[in-house]
Amino acid sequence: MRLLLVHSDYIEYEVKKSTPVAEKVDESQKSGRLEEALTVFLAVEKPDESDIDEIVKRTVDEIKNVMGQINTDRIMLYPYAHLSNELSSPDTAVKALKKIEKELSDKYEVKRAPFGWYKSFNINCKGHPLSELSRTIRLESTSTSATGESTGFESEEEEVVSEALKAEETAKSYWYVLTPDGELRDVDSFDFSDHSNLERFVNYEISESRVVDKTPPHVELMKRLGIADYEQGSDSGNLRYYPRGRFIKSLLENYVLDEAIRSGAMEVETPIMYDMNHPTLKKYLDRFPARQYSIESDKRRLFLRFAACFGQFLMSHDMTISYKNLPLKMVEMTRYSFRKEQRGELVGMKRLRSFTMPDMHTFCEDMDQSISEFDDQYKMCINTLDNIGVDVDDYEVAIRFTRDFYENNKDFITEMAKTVNKPVLVEMWDTRFFYFVLKFEFNFIDALGKASALSTVQIDVENAETYDISYIDRNGESKRPTMLHCSPSGAIERCIYALLEKNAMKIDNGEVPMLPVWLSPTQVRIIPVHEHHFDFAEKIYEQLNCRVDIDDREDTVGKKIREAGREWIPYVVVIGDREIESGKLNVTIRSESLPKKPKSSEMTVEELNNRVLSEIQGMPYREQPLAKYVTKRPKFL
Fold it and tell me: Would you say 7 is a known binding-site residue?
């Protein structure tokens, strides 16, 4: 049984059309509204059929548990098949829903939306930390998380679930806000009036609801801009990338990899699949909170990697390392990494099952060197995202650590908040559940209030022992290094997601959206007014040392300019008689324009060239990914 529970100001629905499995309903059931209610979206699953009465009992208990934490006595039960891809039979589902309704009606005012009908609905979520919760009810023994959530996992045939993931769902978390002046406040007592984005992030983290109930704006943008789309012929959470998308993605990959190499990392390449029964790998697999894909090959069960840790650590085990080599860094751009994310959480480029992850590991002599490297990499991550186009104001910082580590390193952790000059969210544990004692992430909050982790660094105190990695110290003795895990940007796809979501919010605020010039597939578009202006347009094309194309379509100039705007092209040059006579260009500058008030400036070819080159200085460069002439390009959408 899957549940999504939303504490609502109101919930209302209206049936539209029956499906072949629709239950019979009277007129009173065809529409409904409840105010000040707990809305419970439910999906009855195939495994529930083995003991539906027990599932009903546990579901009722769970709903009552949530009702005890919020101030309402009304419940809307809403069948919602999209919560699962393993649904029970319709008869079983209706039977279970009716039993749940009956059990709850003894204590609460309950209304149930009919099963098997297409329905429209409107809901207004209250937005407090307990207003959005997800639950999974299983027949096997369950555990309870810090928020009171009963947990259960897919069967082993479907996915591999690590012990760390189970530990993560049962770990007791203490939530605080750390200010730049070092004050650690409980989240309930912190004044968020000047930090609304941090408040949204805190609510998202504490609620633990990751189910997507509305399509975020970047999905429409990634399609309209010709970046990416869903691939129906693949597994969920896998995308196809069109030329523009592959181009943007490759530039980001090159940039982040270059940043890691500039910091001293050696680039390596390792396999994408590993033996699940390899003794060392099995230990690590159980210490990493993730769900894995598994496959069979030559009578062995293999899993697809979700990071480069496995290959880099096995390689390090076979290396001879001296203290003179430390800190030692290795990096890989994993194309691809795989995680069997739950279907209801998959959406666009935010959460995928296959993704590109820059993964760097640093081997250090001791904790002091690890903290020094951690500080350097923290700042490197800030700089990396800033150059990508996501600055400190665009994300919220989460720092997670054990209580012992905090007590011994308060000044260092406070310095992290000082560096970003704003309050940060802290998650603290009494006991170390995982392989790390300290980690941070930069979390982008999108237009729907959902968070996604980008950059991260972790201090690992366990895996040198697990993988038998050692170095020779100054006295000739073998020692275990302390290790850092770092992704300077997070998944490349999430960087694109963050850029698109940031621009969606700019559009909502009446601003002009655009990508950084260095990431724009076309940096300058030349629009000749008439055919006899083409020769001059060609000359301008040859003189510009950037990504230029020519719109040679037989459309009006106005339509061509609008199309360039829809593609977010940074500079647009219209070539007419005046430009030919004067030798100067009339350039529309997107970064200085308003939605209905484009900013134009007259400049020479050299001035335009210098302006573009100054904006892309120090960043990777590739040639135009599409044909020079717009008429020569196929339409992908």
Answer: no
